[in-house]
Amino acid sequence: VQLVESGGGTVQAGGSLRLSCAASGFTFSSYAMAWYRQAPGKEREWVGLTHRSGDITHYADSVKGRFTISRQNAENTVYLQMNKLKSEDTAVYYCKPLGTNYWGQGTQVTVSP
Q1: 79 has which bridge partners?
Q2: What span, in angstroms and rounded, lies between the C-alpha atoms of 106 and 109?
Q3: What are phi and psi of 88, to 5 degrees?
Q4: Using CA atoms in the order 22, 28, 33, 38, what is the torsion angle rounded to 10 degrees?
Q5: 56-65: per-residue pLDDT in tens?
Q6: Positive or negative CA dihedral for 99, 101, 107, 113?
Q7: Whole-number percent of the chain with pLDDT over 70
């Protein structure tokens, strides 16, 4: 199993970023996919998830209305569109197939004031 997150970077508060997670080594369309993040000195926290078909999503209250998760099963890729970014969104972002303990290396998102 391989999960490769990309798209992170540094952005000013109020800006946007789109993260990607390319998956391989398992049947991508059979798994709900989640995004998590971990800020410096804090526990890893759940950001949101998309069901297997991508038609149902759920979000943490802290990102609801600003972040959108989507997926392209034909491309084995899940996305995290992040808008109206805040400094508290600064973290390393990870994707994860639900029900597994597989993690990628993460991608750093830094939001400057």
Answers
A1: 20, 70
A2: 10
A3: -75, -5
A4: -40
A5: 999 999 999 9
A6: positive
A7: 100
- For residue 20 the two structure tokens come to 């990607």
| CB distance 63 to 55 below 8 Å | no
Tell me the C-alpha to C-alpha distance, in Å, between residue 10 and each of 31, 45, 68, 78, 99: 30, 20, 19, 21, 31
Q: From the CB of residue 67, how many other CB atoms can be counted at a distance below 10 Å?
A: 21
2 contact partners, CB below 8 Å, separation of at least 6: 22, 23, 24, 25, 104
Q: Which amino acid is at 65?
A: G
Tell which residue, 3, 19, 4, 17, has the closest CA to residue 112. 17
What value does the mean pLDDT take over residues 83-97? 98
The answer to whether residues 102 and 1 touch, using CB atoms and an 8 Å cutoff, is yes
Amino acid 109 reads V
